[in-house]
Amino acid sequence: MSTLRPALLTDHYELTMVSAALRDGTADRRCVFEVFSRRLPSGRRYGVVAGTARLIELIRNFRFDEAEVDFLLRRGVVDEPAAAWLRDYRFTGDIDGYAEGELFFPNSPVLTVSGTFAECVVLETLVLSVLNHDSAVAAAAARMVTAARGRTLIEMGSRRAHEGAAVAAARAAYLAGFGFTSNLEAGRRYGIPTAGTAAHAFTLLHDDERTAFASQVATLGKDTTLLVDTYDISQGIRNAIAVAGTDLRAVRIDSGDLAVIAQQSRELLDSLGATETKIIVSGDLDEYAIAALAAEPVDMYGAGTAVVTGSGAPTVGLVYKLVEVDGRPVVKRSEHKATIGGRKIAVRRHKPTGTATEEIIVPQGVPDRQPNDRLLQRSYVVGGEAAELPTLEESREHLRQCLISIPWEGLKLSAGDPAIPVTVVPAA
Amino acid sequence: MSTLRPALLTDHYELTMVSAALRDGTADRRCVFEVFSRRLPSGRRYGVVAGTARLIELIRNFRFDEAEVDFLLRRGVVDEPAAAWLRDYRFTGDIDGYAEGELFFPNSPVLTVSGTFAECVVLETLVLSVLNHDSAVAAAAARMVTAARGRTLIEMGSRRAHEGAAVAAARAAYLAGFGFTSNLEAGRRYGIPTAGTAAHAFTLLHDDERTAFASQVATLGKDTTLLVDTYDISQGIRNAIAVAGTDLRAVRIDSGDLAVIAQQSRELLDSLGATETKIIVSGDLDEYAIAALAAEPVDMYGAGTAVVTGSGAPTVGLVYKLVEVDGRPVVKRSEHKATIGGRKIAVRRHKPTGTATEEIIVPQGVPDRQPNDRLLQRSYVVGGEAAELPTLEESREHLRQCLISIPWEGLKLSAGDPAIPVTVVPAA
């Protein structure tokens, strides 16, 4: 599977800065860049770090080939010395950061990239593109998983996202606890279980609904899901059971007042003896719609648009800021966008019961550790060499544990403060 | 430049439907699928078709290689007959649709894909991914262009979008009238002018602001933009002019109350003799923020998050529905999601002055043409062969003309009805 070459997924100014810094001798100053968000998206109580493994893989392939350098020279983006530097580029610095699947809050130092100014600055756009997108999807997906209260979720939003973003979105949703995706490339690239059976088009293609159902069952067996709302839902359910028998695995309903229809469908299925046949609902479901169906006889939810677009927050506002030069903290001082200088170490503090109480961030120092503190940063890249990455399943389990650890108010869907406070503590 | 192989950017159910349809003999029925939206995103008065040329190129490369087919067999998505069919797949049907850059409204038949059921159904996800994403960005960008009233816009939102989506977003923003993008890959792939100079990190890297400015001017010349808000904006402007002289091209301000700061900055620049130095503002600008700066001395806007995320509407709700089988119109009848059967022809009706008054859609027939009607569909693919596509510049000009043609109320940023009504007229 070919993927995008990452080197030009970069903003113009990163390379003009490299040109200027090479010329004035500052390109090799040791720098620390930090990824953090100033605030969570409106109403959210936590963020979810996602995309880190994808990012580290892209950085590993971050090289400028001759055609790319030629383009940059022709356009006047870089001069010859910068072009020569780009031809030899590979990242030789260090990257530390939160685990994929970790929660984050305002000012959490989600990722720390250190090395020379030039080698770090060119990664800005790629780092932010990956983390902002994947974290937005993962956070929305995590809220849906909470709202689903243990019922299975299927991600089916590929059609509502850019075709490449769709694959990453499927991964982020799975990380957050979704059980399946409809996206085949996500199945292949990341090993995520894929699911799907038929669209309304399949029913319309056939002379009548029963013929369509019979064809589907003949090919896919009774362990399939029949889409029963192309014409009349009650008749669709009767047709489904007439064709497949009472051991049909599931019916799917994609339209109408899902609460009412789920109840009526359950009653009808039961009356037909199909007491084990599951009900899958879909159609513009977000975390609130899912929560509203909690009391209804629904077995599985299909979510599309809302999950792949971050359910109102399609980006999480992560920024990539220079915080240290040659060991000195640096800060931008303009209003509203002030930063906290210096490399930071972060721990999450917990009660002995395991409930998180606070995140402690120490710039240019080490936190005074308490017994139930957990260090939040791990090493991803050392001297340009990537460490072994957690598997997607491990990151998924990590997020599941993190969500168990925050105070219950933190899981509420309503707007509220961050689930735990973040305290920036000056080093001792 | 390698791009994603498109064949698996597809939903699981499309291939299970192919399996079943091949087995029951319906796979070769002649079908017409139509792309349309049931409604515009909340508050919007028009949609903008974007991504069509990108899509046609992806469809041209839509083939299943051996590794992809193996994956599908191993996962049980397809059976052997379907696998054999996929190995030979290439689209041999027809694709008609609105021009890229055309406006659309609820029920506009934006794209029509015809061929056998199986060859058309597998394109559903890819078609919708591309058009939903690119059209969302283009519509937001077009509103910003209107709000900017002739001032130049720079797209700088790559960091707030998936890394692949960012490239397509830059293209869609340029289509809509933006003048530049920060995204280098968009510059290379689509020939879009790129722009950018320096981030706050560049100033922070240096020992002081003047040194940073001097370095930038030494490398990029005076025809550059100095970012003056790292510390104190007034002092930043004084430093900029002290270093570059009064023929500095531009200063950029990325924070604070931009209306007030633009005025103060203009006065200060003028008082320093830099009357020709431009002011570029950026920082969470959307169409409303841009409109609010109309009276201020701003020369150029940088827009990021809002444009790449569709400014509140990250997808435009285009769907891909089967409307005709073997010449018969077909319709889904379930509530709220009814479709209009049959292949449709669309024209836009205009006053003699050129102002659009109505869109006329005729299912299974040809509109009764009036003198100022414009046929909205063109042919993209005939018998699997793609026609020559308009250039991006041509599509950009097409949109510009379309926006001139709609009634002025249609350009208002406030919520309202679609700019022109869409009338579905039964064939004579």
From TrEMBL, chains A, B:
Presence of the UniProt keyword Cell inner membrane in the record: no
This enzyme's EC code(s): 6.3.4.21
Keyword Phosphoprotein: yes
Pfam families registered for this protein in UniProt: NAPRTase_N, QRPTase_C
Molecular functions (GO terms): nicotinate phosphoribosyltransferase activity; nicotinate-nucleotide diphosphorylase (carboxylating) activity
Catalytic activity: 5-phospho-alpha-D-ribose 1-diphosphate + nicotinate + ATP + H2O = nicotinate beta-D-ribonucleotide + ADP + phosphate + diphosphate
Cellular component terms (Gene Ontology): cytosol
Domain Quinolinate phosphoribosyl transferase C-terminal: 137-307
PTMs per UniProt: Transiently phosphorylated on a His residue during the reaction cycle. Phosphorylation strongly increases the affinity for substrates and increases the rate of nicotinate D-ribonucleotide production. Dephosphorylation regenerates the low-affinity form of the enzyme, leading to product release.
Enzyme class of the recorded protein, top EC level: ligase
Domain Nicotinate phosphoribosyltransferase N-terminal: 8-132
Gene3D superfamilies: Aldolase class I (3.20.20.70), nicotinate phosphoribosyltransferase (3.20.140.10)
Keyword terms, alphabetized: Glycosyltransferase, Ligase, Phosphoprotein, Pyridine nucleotide biosynthesis, Transferase
Entry's Gene Ontology BP terms: NAD+ biosynthetic process via the salvage pathway
InterPro entries listed in its UniProt record: Aldolase_TIM, NAPRTase_N, Nic_PRibTrfase-Fam, Nic_PRibTrfase_pncB, Nicotinate_pribotase-like_C, Quinolinate_PRibosylTrfase_C
Pathway(s) of this molecule: Cofactor biosynthesis; NAD(+) biosynthesis; nicotinate D-ribonucleotide from nicotinate: step 1/1
Family: Belongs to the NAPRTase family.
Function of the molecule: Catalyzes the first step in the biosynthesis of NAD from nicotinic acid, the ATP-dependent synthesis of beta-nicotinate D-ribonucleotide from nicotinate and 5-phospho-D-ribose 1-phosphate.
Name of protein: Nicotinate phosphoribosyltransferase
UniProt organism field: Micromonospora krabiensis
